[in-house]
Amino acid sequence: MDKLKISIPDDYPPVMGPSNAFKMLKFRADVDYHESLPPSEEVLLERIGDAPYVINIRSSIRFPAETLEKLKSVKLLSLWGTGTDHVDLEAAARLGITVTNTPGVSAIAMAEHTLALMLTAARDIVRIDGKTRRGGWPRGFVTQLHGKTLGIIGLGAIGQQVARIARGIGMKVIAWTRHANILLAQELDIELVQLDDLYRRADVVSLHIRQTPETANFVGEREFDMMKRTAIFINTARGGVVDEAAMIKALESQSIAAAGLDVFSQEPLPEGHPITKLSNVVITPHSGGISKEALEAGLQMSIDNVFDFANGDPQHVVAGPHS
C-alpha cells in the first residue's frame, strides 16, 4: 500500500515538528512539512499542492470558502485543537471536504490554566511579585476563592473539569449551558442557572464556549454591568466571544475587579494594546492547553484522524459531506 500523502503547511511556532508523534508519522506517510506560517493564500495553496490530507496546526491560517474551493485534491482537513472558527464548515461540507478536530485532549490542561488565572487574579500575584522584586514588601487583602461562587458558561469537557477542580477547592459552582443535563449537574454537584442569574451571583465568571457567528460578543457591556464590582472575569475560550472594548471599560472603571485572559480578539496581542496597560489583568499568550501531555495527545489524535479517515472509519468529524 502506498504511503499517505500529507501536507502540514503551518507549524509555527513549531509544535508538531519536535513531537514524538511527528517522528513516528514520518515513517508512516509521505509528509510535506513546513515550519513557517504561509504568508499568503497563494503560498498556502502551493504548500498543500495535490495532497489529499492536510493537518492544520495554527488557527491563524484561515480556510474560508474561496480558499477551500481551490483545494481540488483535499479530502480531509485535520485540525489540531478544538476550535473550528477559522474554517468555513458549511463550505467544506458542500465541497466534499471532511473536517476533524481533537476534542477533549486539552481539557485538563485548560482547566488547570483556568484555575491558575483565577488564583493569580484573586491573589493579585503579578502586582505583588513585581513590587517584591523591586525591593518592596507589599501588604494588602487578597481574595480567597474557598466559599466563593464560580459561574461557568459552557459545560463541555473543559467546563466540566473546571467545575470539578473548583468544587475541590471549596467553591460553590453554578453554570449555564445550551444543553442542560440534570444528571451531569448532579454528578458535578453544581447548580444550573439562567445566564443573567449567573452574571449577578458569580464571584468569578469563567467562559468556556465555542466561537461561532452566534457567540460573537456573547459577553458585552450589558453582561459586565450585571457582574459584581468584586467579580473576576476569566476567558480561556476565544477572544471573539467577548466585546473587548466593553471588557476594557469595565476593568478601567473597576466595575469589575479583575480579569484573567488567555485569548484576545487580535493574536498575537500587539505591543501597547490597552489590555497590556491594565494592572488588574493577568494575561497569557493563548497557551492554556499546551502542556507536554496535552500537546502530544492532541498532535497524535490529529494524525490518527487522518489514518482513521483513510481506512474508512472517520473519527471526531465536525463537518463533511455526510455531516
Measured as a percent range, the helix fraction is 25-40%
What Rg is obtained from the alpha carbons, in whole angstroms? 21 Å
Residue stretches low in confidence (pLDDT < 50, at least 5 long) are none
SS-derived structural category = alpha/beta
**Can you list the strand order of the major beta sheet?**
8-7-6-9-10-11-12
Number of domains: 2
Mind describing the biggest β-sheet?
Answer: 7 strands, parallel
Series of secondary-structure elements, N-terminal to C-terminal: EHEHEHEHEHHEHEHEHEHEHEEHE
CATH topology of the largest domain: the name is: Rossmann fold
Topology of helices and strands:
Elements: E1 4-8, H1 20-28, E2 29-33, H2 41-48, E3 53-56, H3 65-68, E4 76-79, H4 89-94, E5 98-100, H5 107-122, H6 125-133, E6 149-153, H7 157-168, E7 172-176, H8 182-188, E8 191-192, H9 195-201, E9 204-207, H10 221-226, E10 232-235, H11 244-252, E11 258-261, E12 281-283, H12 292-310, E13 317-319
Parallel strand pairs: 1-2, 1-3, 3-4, 4-5, 6-7, 6-9, 7-8, 9-10, 10-11, 11-12
Antiparallel strand pairs: 5-13
Structure description:
The chain has 323 residues and is of the alpha/beta class. It has 2 domains: 4-105 and 291-319, Rossmann fold (3-Layer(aba) Sandwich); 107-283, Rossmann fold (3-Layer(aba) Sandwich), CATH 3.40.50.720. The chain contains 12 helices and 13 strands. The chain has a 7-stranded parallel beta sheet with strand order 8-7-6-9-10-11-12, with helices on both faces. A 6-stranded mixed beta sheet has the order 2-1-3-4-5-13. Helix 1 runs parallel beside helix 12 and helix 5 crosses helix 7 (157-168). It is globular and about 65 Å long.
